[in-house]
Amino acid sequence: MKNKIVFLLFIFISITILKVKAQDSAVITVTPQSFSKIIIRIPPFEGETEEEVSSLIRKLLNYHLICVALKEPPLKGFKEKSYYLKGRLSKGSRFFFEGELIDVFEEKPIKRYKAEATSLEKLAYALSDQIIRDISPYQGVSQSKLVFVKRNKRGDHLYIMDFSKRNLKRIRSAELILFPKFSPSGKKIAYLIYEKGHYNLEIYHILTGEVEKFKLQGLSSAPIWALDERHLYLTLGKEGEINVYKFSLEEKTLTPLTKGKGVHQAGSISPDERFIAYVGDSSGNPQIYFLDLSTKQIKRISFEGKYNTSPRFSPKGDRLLYLSSQGGQNQLVIYNLKTGEKKKYLLQGINLTDPSFSPTGDYLIFKAKGKYGKGLYLLHLDSLLYYSYLPFENLYYPDWGKLY
Asked: Which of 73, 83, 101, 150 is least enclosed by beta carbons within 10 angstroms?
């Protein structure tokens, strides 16, 4: 019984590979050294006793990959292309920060800050994201959470934590836990669980700790949240067919969306909930398709590679990414939904699986094995800078949600 879902997960790998008559686009091999990072200097703030806020802000900015945050203030009289954050921290019933961001080269302040929060941690998160917005064209992800599965010989453990790597919390343990996915609000997590000889769908409510359980036969892929959080899109195996269904959490009813023999495995839903991106093998090997939820029309998206998997819509709605296998290594394909252009990227020394977008759409987190070891890696999409975010080999199925 337990082996059934494992077979479904890897069924595409065992399918006979047919040649696809399409021209492959050029592959861009990238290394993480080809981007000029933004330097920002953040010495301890006035009023700090143990650098509670300034040190955390430096860590968060460095986690964003596009910055180099340093503790040392700029040298007097020396012009450099960098930024300098100085300020004062005070405490009343809440925590307060007042400061300014200075362009060191121009020798003038470009932003003044007044911020308050109920904790030093929340203050640091908010300031970090604001700084990212002020010094770059990107949105910060300090105010976000991650979920992942840690696996060992005794079973699986489901964890959530802040992007800062703080507030790690185990929320579920079982023999097998698969595919955790945050709801759009970031307040719920749906996942599949194997327990007492059966697979079930569970939904964990982060604020209350409440767990909803649903017994569904033939579950075989990640649950995908609808925008209203009252429905999920599920992949179910029934009578030799594996298809995509819409599941009502309130009425507990299933509506089939795809049909036919073979495998149709749901991967992602577009931000406007118009399309489901799924993996299907109707061409003889796994390829990416779009299902128009209003017209039920199907459009094939991928034509390259031995097999293509893991379609993910960007939260911005401007692109779709998926993985294309070449020579035993997964390449990252980014498909521009507005122009139709495709670019394929081979990350030097990295073989990635289980990609997930940040809530801003600027970053990916994924499981990988590469020159930095095994673990969960973080990638900034525009610069293609990446690093080993959690360097532990027994971590699986990362997903990224909002910090509410």
From this structure: 73
